[in-house]
Design a protein that fits this description.
Two copies of one chain form a homodimer.
Chain A: H1 3-22, H2 26-42, H3 44-60, H4 65-71, H5 75-90, E1 98-103, E2 109-116, E3 119-124, H6 129-140, E4 144-148, H7 154-170, E5 178-180, H8 187-192, E6 201-205, H9 208-217, E7 230-234, H10 240-252, E8 261-267, H11 271-284, E9 288-291, H12 293-298, E10 303-304, E11 318-324, H13 327-337, E12 342-346, H14 350-359, E13 364-369, H15 376-379, E14 386-388, E15 396-398, E16 404-415
Parallel strand pairs in A: 3-4, 3-6, 4-5, 7-8, 7-12, 8-11, 9-10, 9-11, 12-13
Antiparallel strand pairs in A: 1-2, 2-16, 14-15
Chain lengths: 418, 418
């Protein structure tokens, strides 16, 4: 079978399975999640054995240590997959909920009912545990899923896939509801992205290169974010102690993730008071600071920022700092350089807080809280499959509900159109 | 300026305008709608004069009468545009509504707030009145819009565009919030569809050819439906009189539209009773019937249906008819040949009604009512810009609310991520 034919067959099978999965009772879906968890528990040695093949290959090809860490399905990682399955099992099932219902003058009862999206194409890079995490969310939300992981994790992904297929079959669910594309060729992704007839939504997760590749080649709508260039604006009326705590958390707690702060905007009038303590704390944590001329004037140890540093996702202990004359200028900077991801204001001023919430065009906008809260779990969605910054139904973190849409259901009693 | 540069400039300007339009008070948006209506009222002769150029060109090029009718901006059509503007003005403004809000254990107040999509690309065919109708919906929902109409309506669209720009400017709204691409070249559409940096959503409206062209060339998510192949299933427990009335309405009232019935599925057990009266009525209205072998056996005047007739959008007084042994077979036929658009069941059986609503994967699913109700106005959305059968946030008719999405807003008091 050619690669194109293989991908087509997988997608067709997924579409058929999706019809069944869409109407499964919650209890059956939870049973399947439990069966997958039990499979992982029982087959630890098999999983580790297959995972070793990937690790050995990666080592031979000279991948860096951090990469191999992410690739490794240790006992701890297997435990976290099992825990994830249990957590998803406990989340409420979004499918079938009537989100609203109203009566028309002609007596028609019109409602909107949550339904699964259908078939989700999930394209991701190295970590093989994501294979199980993503499958669990798709299954619980009544979707079929086609998974295409990184080539370096192919043995791991295939053994997890076969475990999940067995678990599904044992609970009477078509195993084609969760499929891993069994090839390392990138051409498979290109083929997949053409199949808008069978696949409803594509979610890529990984580096900006992967995501751009998917967006540019897809005929299917893509839920994605390219990057998270998160800003914090410290207002003239900020509680400076709170500002220091939040900015430190947003930059330092986990600098390599998309909801970490990349640019700090400081109101002119408090900069001389705020900068000394804040920068001392950043330096202690090893943060490299790159500032606008005014910042450098206040603290000559700061490296001058280049134009490239604005709107740049460092994903590292590096921070761009700009002093602005007012909220207006802060909003303009965010509008120009932001990535629609996460922005926060630190202020005690009521009007500025409301204005910031209202005008900033980002998936999550916060007052007096860390940007690190842009996360499905932290915001109360239970779990997330990713964060979307396209203006589609799911702007921001995507949990179970964001893997559904609604259809209209209409209860009539013989109505016709006049 | 090259065509590509022109389209890029228009799109960039739209994005800048979108930021302003997003936060306009409802009263200002309504004032702009009123100003557009007043402009149409005052400039009737100018509009008709420009429209005449399009009509003359179309006549010279031998376009059919029906096409020229659709192209004509008669006094009646101008009145309907004015009425449409007034209606949209009276609809509630969806922007800013908090759709839900909850408190996290750490005290964060997390809410979802409706925001505009941003910049909408609207690509459509002949009728120039759509230029104003679509602009009104986009403006009221806080979006900027770029309109690309058919080449045959270019003079009409440009005069309407200039009227709208004046009206916007007179109310202090950037005129670039509503722009018509001033060219007849299709290449402009290709350029537009690349600009995912500036445009958030594309909505094509027109024939299947146009829509496929847009879907295949777009890097921006597309809200669309290719076709409406609507089915009605007449169950064994149907009230046959009601079934007759609804099926007649769904096929005959306006056969050329996407929510008209194209295939009638009849339960085996009532076919012999239902068919004689129903078919007599269809024939009286000039409906051509194409049936499965069983249908032909019951009524030899029926032409045998070919495989092509299933899942075909006739948009005409032609109906495909199939007798099925049970609901299961009806559901399977719809799953195979349906277009995710509109499906109805006629039944007095509670369980079958609920099962049909639950299992049919269409944007609108009805019990005992005509498929013709898949329409934003009829379902109570106020108005619609189109119907979407992709599984995005707006599955079905799209009114004002469907031209928005939500962002997360978070009220904190110093929270950081642990």
């Amino acid at each position: 079978m050619s690669l194109a034919a293989l991908v087509q067959k997988i997608s067709q099978d997924a579409k058929i399975a999706a019809r069944e999965v869409a109407v499964l009772p919650t209890s059956v879906k939870n049973k399947a999640l439990a069966a997958i968890a039990a499979g992982l528990q029982q087959q630890r040695s098999l999983i580790e054995q297959e995972n070793q093949k990937d690790i050995k290959n990666a080592q031979q090809q000279g991948y860096p240590r951090a990469f191999i860490d992410r690739l490794t399905l240790s006992d701890k990682v297997i435990n976290s997959m099992i825990q994830g399955l249990n957590e998803v099992s406990q989340l409420p099932d979004p499918v079938g909920a009537i989100t609203s219902m109203w009566k028309r003058p002609n007596g028609l009862l019109v409602g909107r009912q949550r339904i699964p999206l259908g078939v989700i194409g999930f394209i991701y890079e190295s970590r093989p545990n994501v294979t199980v995490d993503a499958a669990a969310l798709c299954l619980k939300s009544g979707n079929a899923v086609i998974l295409k992981g990184g080539k370096e994790a192919i043995h791991s992904n295939l053994v997890l896939s076969s475990l999940m297929a067995q678990a599904l079959a044992s609970t009477g669910i078509p195993p084609t509801a969760v499929q891993v594309i069994p090839t390392t060729e990138r051409e498979a992704v290109v083929e997949l992205l053409k199949l808008d007839e069978f696949i409803d939504i594509v979610i890529p997760r990984g580096g900006e290169g992967l995501i751009r590749f998917v967006a540019e080649n897809s005929r299917i709508p893509v839920l994605k974010h390219y990057k998270g260039v998160c800003h914090i604006f410290v207002d003239s009326d900020a509680d400076l102690e709170m500002a220091e705590t939040i900015c430190f958390n947003a930059k330092v707690q986990r600098p390599g993730v998309c909801n970490a702060m990349e640019t700090l905007l400081i109101h002119n009038s408090i900069a001389p008071r705020f900068i000394p303590l804040m920068f001392a704390r950043f330096r202690e944590a090893g943060v490299e600071l790159r500032g606008c001329p005014q910042t450098v004037a206040l603290d000559p140890q700061v490296k001058p920022a280049s134009e490239q540093d604005w709107g740049y996702e460092f994903l590292d202990l590096i921070l761009a700092v700009k002093i602005v004359p007012d909220l207006e200028a802060g909003l303009a900077h965010i509008a120009r350089y932001g990535s629609y991801h996460t922005e926060a204001i630190i202020t005690e001023n009521y009007r500025n807080a409301q204005r910031f919430l209202n005008e900033v065009d980002s998936s999550v906008v916060l007052v007096n809280a860390s940007t690190r809260f842009n996360d499905g779990g932290e915001l109360g969605l239970g779990a997330e499959i990713g964060i979307n910054t396209s203006k589609l139904h799911a702007f921001g973190p995507m949990g179970l509900e964001e893997l559904t849409t609604t259809k209209f259901i209409v209860y009539g009693s013989g109505q016709i159109r006049q």
